Amino acid sequence: MSNNTSYHPDPERYDGRMPYRRCGNSGLKLPSISLGFWHNFGDLDDLVQSKRIMHRAFDLGITHFDFANNYGPPAGSAEINCGKILKSDFSNHRDELVISSKAGYHMWDGPYGEWGSRKYLLSSLNQSLKRLQLDYVDIFYSHRPDPETPLEETMGALATAVQQGKALYVGISNYSAELADSAISILKDMGVPCLIHQPKYNLFERWIEGGLTDILLANGVGCIPFSPLAQGLLTERYLDGIPADSRAGKEHGYLQKSEVKIKIDKIRALKSIAEKREQSLANMALAWVLRQPSVTSALIGASSVEQLEDNIQCLNQLEFTAGELAAIDQIVSA
Hints:
By secondary structure, the protein is of the alpha/beta class. The protein is built from 10 helices and 10 strands.
C-alpha cells in the first residue's frame, strides 16, 4: 500500500482522552464513541469534509468506523468514498482500526440482492471489501433478520465469513430479543461467537430495555446503539423550528417534520435537565445511552468536525443522579 499521505495522526491520541470499553466477554475493546457512516459520506456530500471528519475522529481516539453495504446515498458510495480515504490516509494504521460493514437491506436488483440468504450475505461482503479496498473487515453484521430464511443459514453465512478470513468477528443488528437469543445460541454452537448487537436505542426508543439488554449481558455480547441522538431530535437543532439544511428539512432525509412537532415539548424539557447538568442536550443524550450497563459504545454520525468535537464532550460528564434519571423517565414516558 502507498505511504503517500499528508495526514499525520495526533501522537497523543491514546493519552486517555477516549475511554475504551470491552465488548461483551471478548478480547476486543471499542471506543466509547464510534463513528457511523450512514449519512454524510456519500456522493451527495463534500468529501473534503468527510476526510477531515475521519482524520479528527482518529485523532480523538475514535478507532471504530462503522459502514454498511447500502450507506450513501447512493447505496455503496460511502464505502467507495471512504475506501479511498482509508487507503490513502490510514493504510499505515489499519491494525489500529476496527472497521465494520453489514448486509441485509436492498442493495441490488433480483432475488439475491437483500435479506439474509447465504448467497446474498457472502456476495455482499465480497463487494464491500472491494469498495473499501480492504482484505477483511473486523466486524461483519447481519443488518436485519430475514423472516423467510432459516436463521441457521444466515448465521452460517456469518460463520463462513470468519472462516474465510474476510471478517474477524460477527454481529447482528435490528434483531428482537427472541431472535437475538436464538442467533447468539446458533453462532455459539458453530464456534463463532456473536460479538455484538447494533440496535436502535435512544431516549425516545427504549425497546431494548424490555429483554434484549438482559440477554446480551447474560451471553457476554456487546451492544453498540445507533441513532443515540434520534437523528438529531435530541439536539438543540430544532428548538426554534426546522432548518432547511437539517435532516427533517431535507427531502431525502429519514426524519419527518411531523415527528419534530410531536416531540418538541419533550425536547425542551430534556434540555432543561441538561442545562442543570451543565451539558448540551446532545451530550446528555449520549451520556444517557452510555450509562446502560450492556452498552459498549455509542454510534454517532457527524456532518462536520465541529459537530464531532461537540459530541465527544459527553465523555466529560457520564454520571447521573437517581433524581435526574427519574426526571428524564417522567418526561419521555409522558
